Amino acid sequence: MEKIQLGTPDGTAENVDRLAELFPQAVTEVEADDGSITRAIDFDALRDLLGDVAEGTRERYQFTWPGKAEAKAEARRPIAKTMRPEKGKSKDWDTTQNLYIEGDNLDALKILKETYAGKVKLIYIDPPYNTGHDFVYDDDFARIQSEYKPESGEYNEEGGRLVPNTEGNGRFHSDWCSMMYPRLILARELLSDDGAIFISIDDNEVGNLRKICDEMFGPNNFLAQITWNKRYTRSNNAKLFTSLTDWILAYRKSPSLSTLKESRTDKTNSIYSNPDNDPRGPWTSVSYVNPATKDQRPNLSYPLYNPISGNTVIHPTNAWKYERTTYETHVSEGRLYWGKDGTNTYPRLKKFLSEMVGAVPTNLWSYSEVGSTDIATKEVADLLEGKYFDFPKPTGLVLKMLDIVTDRNSIIVDFFSGSGTTADSVIRQNYIDSGTRRFILVQIPELCNAKSEAAKAGFSSICDLGEERIRRAGEKIRAEVEESNRKLKIGEEPKRVPDIGFRVLRIDSSNMRDTLATPEETTQKGLFDSADNVKEGRTDEDLLFEVLPKFRIPYSARIEERTIAGKRCMVVEDGLLVACFDTNVSVDTIEAIAKMEPVYAVMRDASMADDATHANFEELFRTHSPDTVRRVV
């Protein structure tokens, strides 16, 4: 029986595997520190295969800072952590496809990568802007828990890793870059080939962030540096300039995302009219003249015929935009417009509104279109009945991104979720177009200051605030759907309530004890204690959620509890996986599970009733369901 290897994968080993696929000649074996033989990459051999490479003291274009190498290593470093379900904090646990994760987002991204790599269409994050008054994540694991002071409100309950980053810090920019770098490495792996990431930022770090993203995604995958006009009034408290804008950097995963369109609005449609009563409806026109000269494009230089004046037209210097055969098609379809009286010197090409599929997005987003910081503050305050967030983002801003990038069943991730605007926006967009988009939000459980208005209102952490905001936003949309359905006209289809629930998961240490010990560390009592390798206080659901990513089964999967031959089992996705972590599991239960023919089956090694059960485990599956992948923990 094969045991499941718990913890997240080793990123270095994964990279070695990738290189080995591309360059098997560069694979070698070396002796590790513990004396074992392990596979490695022979860089001399790899250099011979690749030819000239930049190394050593050779000058090259690069962006670096103190701590960058460690930031790269941190992204690859495995962790022995898991997601634990929090049903009491969740909404619509049994039916929802949405996730809210409480914990450090670096841990969350490492765990999520196992299941969601290549599946996320849009990532939107609003990280700390590094203004000198922000907290950043401290990824220095050498610091012990006793050094943190959770009562200050600056850290989470588990020792936090949120530290103030003041301008007096000698590593002010370096610490911020080191925080962002490993998280963006992992974020890129979550994106689908046609996925994109949008990142809000201001002037303090936009230059550094763009260099990091150019390195991470490639400058050819840069989409836009969007200007968000976030305010409409200046602040006279400023001594130099008042900032009315923020930036949003947009990058794609790969050229597979080749076209972007946003929904048309009354404003984008306003340029269309029908002055000649064309039966095809409103249209606009574009020039037929090519910026290129005749000498540059001789194949696009030919005479045109004006059917109204009867004149033949030749441009004196420039070519036309289209080849002759295309021009003849335009003529036959009546697409050339020579002016109301046919007196235009050159024709224009009709573009009909009915043929337009969306509009090309621009890199200037006005508060009048997507909302302002004032609107965002009011949105959250109205839902939570109090002002608890200083700089939330408006739902209109995220709705714009959803409209441009996602389709109706996309997965959206936000790992700096804060006030929960992304979840609110996803639910609302699903209401607008009857979509089934799913969100995954991550937020470190930063404590609310005991003297804050949020604490006085009964909220202990940012997670509590975010979760409550999502609950209330969902109920608000439910009320809107019900009100709309009460006003239906005869023959109209009623709207459905979108998925307004979410499963809350909390990042914690692995459910399994660390049973590795040297002979000197081993005692008789320790041997008895390690017979059951599950930590005290951990439930069957905890175990299930630790093994789900090993089979790439999403955390939103349907889970049904069943009694099989007298033992408690969990059936995932109607038999995709059957898990049994009960005690004293007999041959009867294993045989019954095998007869269900699941794709995957998993149980605890310590759960088997006796040696006979151990001995018959594999044989029962070979007899009744040989294709089932079976594992033990």
Order of strands in the sheet with most strands: 4-22-5-21-20-6-9-11-10-19
Strand tally is 27
Sheet with the most strands, sense and barrel status: 10 strands, mixed
Mean pLDDT: 88
N→C terminal distance: 10 Å
Low-confidence stretches: 141-159, 515-519, 521-530
Q: Counting H and I runs of at least 4 residues, what is the number of helices? A: 18
Percentage of β-strand residues:
15-25%
Estimated structural class: alpha/beta
Cα radius of gyration in angstroms: 30 Å
What does the overall shape look like? Answer: globular
Helix content: 25-40%
Describe this structure in words.
A 10-stranded mixed sheet has the order 4-22-5-21-20-6-9-11-10-19, with helices on both faces. A 6-stranded mixed sheet has the order 1-27-26-25-24-23, sandwiched between helices. Strands 12-18-17 form a 3-stranded antiparallel sheet, with no helix packed on it. It contains 18 helices and 27 strands.
